[in-house]
Specification:
heterodimer; A: alpha+beta; Sulfite Oxidase, Chain A, domain 2; 7-stranded mixed sheet; 5-stranded mixed sheet; 9 helices; B: mainly alpha; globular
């Protein structure tokens, strides 16, 4: 064993310096670890979002007083464009609602076509520009109620789906309309994982599809749809849960029997074909009696048919809405 | 490990565990929590609860495998953080989602299975937090204390199922938690089974510092 005394006293670090260094190192470790934790948190929960600057839509018409009274314009504060464009359920891009906008940025819709086929007299493949010329763009301010119990008020731009259906002339035995989203895992990265059975498909009964409130939307807030909201063209059915509003539509087929729908196939006991907003029929796992209006604190009561009962309740007269949820 | 070093590492855990809460609060003040800030804050504190629960329960297997016995004193700090975030999680739900309505909270709780599971997890953690002090460990005795604190697994299982049940389709995240939990539980069960077989009388001491 070495004699500790052999060490010259001048070589012994002054205790004051030693403890200072120790404190210094500790402060450094503390700061570095806290910064690292903060960076990990920030990486998982990013802030700061891109602005929506899609082209303005020209020739926009606003609803007449009579149309507004028929549900074309809801008189409630509108959800901000920022929130509408950064809180999206669009699993084709991401299952994270805040992550859809960045994942969908740059989604290319050039040369978009929509095929309208099935039980119609005049089937056809429409270039998007031709489809949008069928009827002038109208502003429709609708409530949007998600099945997850949150809601928004959105100023859509679009026109009634019935205008398109009248152009293609449905045959007498057409009882339902089926819709299909684009299937392209290269442009829609969410489709590379099998969260849902792609492509996303939805459907409406013929009378629902022909109802004036049912629209094909190509914009919101007077601008073309941002990719994350279903560009370039999507369905909006304001009295139904949001998942009925199929996005980025490439195919519309008129059929004789009830078409299969994506969420219904995913969980038949949780998501029905009709999916009408109904505060009295709960989701098996959560309540549908109230909703979180985005931008508000607290919860609002959910309205029957999302507040459009006067306009649409007659479509379901005599139907058991508990069985046909 | 020296007493002073233990105190420093505990302080280190304290600061790092508080960082997510500080950032969450900072983002909330600057309106940076996105379109649904209530839901975001509730979800984030729930995730932190699960993360700290998993870290707490991972400590013993890591200590046994590596032989790093100096890790032991930090289990309590981690576990108390899990309990702390669970309380914040519940208070955010009670205030932001239920508007401080006791009856509204109770009726919703009995109706929703996921809320029953979440409340069970929180309630199970209460006695664990209360008996986390040295005095309580001595009073209960190491054997009984350890038996009681195995309830942490019940809390974690309830917590993960509580999370799983609220996801619509993308269950990958709750499944990651479930998988980690299964590994930890499997290790403990295997350990218990191996100890029981040759019956080596292991001396069980209260957690000391």
């Amino acid at each position: 064993m070495k004699e500790p005394d052999k060490l010259a006293s001048s070589e012994i670090t002054d205790p004051a310096v030693y403890f200072n260094r120790r404190t210094f190192i500790r402060a450094g470790v503390l700061a570095a670890s806290a910064a690292a934790t903060g960076l990990v948190y920030r990486r998982l929960n990013p802030v700061g979002r891109g602005k929506v600057n899609t082209p303005l839509i020209e020739g926009l018409t606003t609803p007449t007083a009579a149309e507004a009274a028929a549900g074309f314009r809801v008189d409630e504060p509108q959800t901000s464009l920022e929130h509408i464009a950064h809180y999206n359920n669009f699993y084709e891009f991401s299952t994270d609602k805040e992550g859809v906008a960045p994942a969908a940025a740059g989604f290319d819709t050039k040369g978009w076509q929509v095929s309208v086929e099935g039980l119609v007299r005049k089937p056809g493949v429409f270039d998007l520009d031709d489809l949008l010329k069928i009827s002038p763009p109208e502003e429709r301010i609708y409530r949007m109620r998600c099945v997850e119990a949150w809601s928004m008020v959105i100023p859509w731009v679009g026109f009634s789906l019935s205008k398109l259906l009248n152009v293609v002339e449905p045959l007498g035995d057409a009882k339902f309309v089926a819709f299909q989203t684009l299937l392209d895992p290269k442009r829609m990265p969410g489709q590379r994982s099998r969260v849902l059975d792609w492509p996303y498909v939805e459907g409406l009964r013929m009378d629902e599809a022909m109802h004036p409130l049912t629209i094909l939307a190509s914009g919101l807030y007077g601008r073309a749809l941002p990719p994350q909201d279903g560009a370039p063209i999507r369905l909006v059915v304001p009295w139904k849960y949001g998942f009925k509003g199929v996005k980025s539509i490439v195919k519309i087929t008129l059929v004789a029997t009830q078409p299969r729908t994506t969420w219904n196939e995913e969980a038949p006991n949780e998501y029905g074909f009709y999916a009408n907003v109904n505060p009295h029929v709960d989701h098996p796992r959560w309540s549908q009696a109230t909703e979180q209006r985005i931008g508000e604190s607290g919860r609002r009561p959910t309205l029957m048919f999302n507040g459009y009962a006067d306009e649409v309740a007659h479509l379901y007269a005599g139907m058991d809405l508990r069985a046909n949820f | 490990m020296k007493e002073k070093d233990i105190r420093f590492v505990k302080f280190l855990i304290l600061v790092n565990g508080a960082v997510p809460l500080a950032l969450l609060a900072g983002d909330a003040i600057r309106h940076q929590l996105g379109a649904n800030p209530q839901k975001f804050a509730i979800l984030t504190t729930g995730m932190m609860t699960l993360i700290f629960l998993v870290l707490t329960m991972a400590l013993t297997p890591v200590r046994k495998i590596t032989g790093w016995n100096w890790l032991l004193p930090f289990r309590r700090t981690l576990g108390l953080f899990a309990f702390f975030y669970a309380c914040v999680h519940f208070l955010l739900f009670f205030s932001l989602d239920r508007s401080f309505s006791v009856s509204g909270t109770l009726t919703e709780m009995v109706k929703r299975k996921y809320l029953i599971l979440g409340s069970t997890a929180l309630l199970v953690m209460v006695p664990l937090a209360i008996t986390s002090t040295n005095a309580m460990i001595k009073r209960l005795g190491g054997k009984r204390w350890r038996a009681l604190h195995r309830l942490a697994y019940a809390a974690a299982i309830c917590g993960v199922v509580h999370y799983y049940m609220q996801v619509k389709a993308d269950v990958r995240q709750p499944l990651v938690f479930a998988a980690v939990l299964a590994v930890l539980l499997g290790y403990r069960l295997l350990n218990t089974w191996q100890q029981r077989k040759p019956a080596p009388v292991a001396t069980i001491k209260p957690e000391s510092e």
